[in-house]
Design brief:
heterodimer; A: 292 residues; mainly alpha; MetI-like fold; two-stranded antiparallel ribbon; 2 strands; B: 254 residues; Rossmann fold; four-stranded antiparallel β-sheet; globular
């Protein structure tokens, strides 16, 4: 009897695992099969390596998404540039400097930050961050790549802070004490011993933050200006892959090349996040083997 | 015996973890260039006492202390004392070897670098000297860039000693440095301690009575947070003045 129960529990968990894998494979399959017809008319080179995106042109529709890929990467890199140092710094402050009382207040506040809906952040991007950027850089409006980067950084911060904090907390106290024992200050101990020892966890937190930023849609759609052109710098308006799909999929006639091409963008996005995760995993494994 | 020069003087020292008193009215004179062995049953406060001598207990939240510990006549608990400076003068080796996840070289160089040494030649020279001082140079000189975790347990502990020596402390605190090591590695550490006392004052906590008898010049016996007996090692082990000391060293409890 106990044996049967055990087997049933095994089976249940196996089924759960299977569902997750099944859903993932299903999504991938749908993306591939729906995107495939697009490439009967568009060459993959044109799709990935040209800039002009004008699928509704009457004479000669064009389907280049390079500017969107660049836009997505720009906004993501910008967000990480802001969020990674800030996030690690905050995590180090919370683990090693802050008094228990400060920590008790700060932790829930950071968690609340993670719960802000992206559309609210987008709204703040339009009415708050945008005007500030416009004022500082002397632009007619502030809806551009920097704006998106700032907002995505805010979204990625809670992830980076919480996970980096966990990583720093799990650094054995013996390392900290060894550092103090040779006359290191708190700052030296954090920077030269704790952060290097926790680097794999910190790195993972940044990767998760990056995943969040690459895939985020509503905020960037609202705050980045959405111009489907090649951005020259961070002050140009950009239109990311996610924003393009969100804008156009509602209005596109079904089963047209345009419709299929949008799924093609989704596929590219999927592949990019997949590669990021793989790369992160590889780096992590390599590093952990070296350390342990 | 150099009874004239008191390196560390502990007076009326009380120590608390929160409400719990871990050390009671401890008074002890630690003489220069001697090995002071601290023995006592588990939980008697010997590690707490050791960690008070370089204020390592400061990292534990909720601790309190009373009384004074003077290093060369200066109270290390006085207001405005630089803890970092104390710890540089009073080095420490821990029970479990705790090298950093860095290379052998970087482990030893760490203390030099954080204390502002930039000159690569000076660093290399002092690393070599420290590794020699810890009797490890011959074994690692060809793999200084290997990870410290690739060394054996005994080598890792000697690496930690080298790391402590690199900043040229005056006192070396050792918290059961050989308790996790096999007999061969242990005897190497013990030989090393005899060598090191020429230049350093050494305070060593040990669980192992034979070890205390072998290596210490003075022996302190702690129990329940009190210093029961402190005298020349020969006297403590052959003719202790308190009955309880005798019971402990003859293995009747503990």
């Amino acid at each position: 009897m106990a044996r049967i129960k055990e087997n049933m529990i095994h089976g249940l968990f196996f089924l759960n695992g299977l569902v997750v894998v099944g859903v993932l494979c299903g999504i991938f399959a749908i993306l591939v099969f729906t995107a495939a017809p697009a490439f009967k008319e568009i060459s993959i080179v044109e799709f990935l390596a040209t800039v002009r995106w004008n699928p509704t042109s009457y004479y000669k529709p064009s389907y280049g998404i390079l500017s969107m890929i660049v836009s997505s990467l720009m906004v993501t890199i910008g967000a990480l540039t802001i969020a990674v140092p800030l996030g690690i710094g905050t995590a180090a402050y919370l683990t090693d400097v802050a008094s228990p009382r400060v920590r008790e207040v700060a932790k829930p506040v950071i968690e609340i930050l993670a719960g802000i809906p992206s559309v609210v952040l987008g709204f703040l991007g339009i009415v708050l961050v945008g005007p500030i950027i416009a004022r500082v850089f002397g632009l007619p409006n502030g809806l551009n790549a920097i704006n998106g980067s700032v907002l995505l950084a805010v979204m990625a911060l809670p992830t980076i802070i919480s996970l980096s904090e966990d990583a720093l907390n799990s650094v054995p106290r013996s390392f900290t004490e060894a550092s103090y024992a040779v006359g290191a200050t708190k700052w030296q101990t954090v920077v030269r011993v704790k952060i290097p020892a926790a680097i794999s966890g910190i790195f993972a937190s940044c990767m998760l933050g990056m995943g969040r930023a690459v895939g985020e849609t509503m905020t960037v759609l609202m705050a980045t200006g959405c111009a489907p052109a090649m951005p020259r710098n961070f002050l140009d308006p950009v239109r990311t892959m996610t924003a393009s799909i969100a804008i156009e999929l509602g209005e596109v006639p079904y089963y047209t090349t345009h419709y299929y091409a949008l799924f093609g963008i989704g596929l590219v996005l999927f592949v990019i996040t997949f590669l990021i995760n793989m790369a992160a995993d590889a780096v992590l494994n390599k590093y952990q083997v070296k350390v342990r | 015996m150099n009874r004239e020069h008191i390196k560390i003087k502990v007076k009326d020292f009380n120590f608390f973890y929160g409400e719990e008193q871990a050390l009671k009215n401890v008074a002890m004179d630690i003489y220069k260039n001697e090995v002071i062995g601290i023995i006592g049953p588990s939980g008697c406060g010997k590690s707490t006492f050791l960690r008070s001598l370089n204020r390592m207990n400061d990292v534990i939240p909720g601790v309190k202390y009373e009384g004074t510990v003077t290093l060369d006549g200066k109270n290390i608990f006085a207001h405005g004392i630089d803890v970092v400076d104390i710890r540089r003068k009073v080095g420490m080796v821990f029970q479990k070897s705790n090298p950093f996840p860095k290379s052998v070289f970087d482990n030893v160089a760490y203390g030099l670098r954080i204390n502002g040494e930039k000159n690569k030649d000076v660093i290399a020279e002092k690393v070599e000297k420290s590794l020699m001082g810890a009797a490890l140079w011959g074994e690692v000189k060809d793999r200084l860039s290997a990870s410290a975790f690739d060394l054996s347990g005994g080598q890792q502990q000697r690496l930690c000693i080298a790391r402590a020596l690199a900043v040229e402390p005056e006192v070396l605190l050792m918290d059961e440095p050989a308790s996790a090591l096999d007999p061969t590695a242990t005897s190497k550490i013990e030989e090393l301690i005899q060598e090191l006392k020429k230049n350093y004052t050494i305070v060593i906590v040990t669980h192992n009575m034979q070890q205390a008898a072998r290596i210490s010049d003075y022996t302190a016996f702690f129990m329940m947070g009190e210093l029961i007996e402190y005298d020349v090692a020969g006297k403590v082990f052959t003719n202790p003045s308190k009955k309880i000391t005798e019971e402990y060293i003859t293995g009747r409890f503990g």
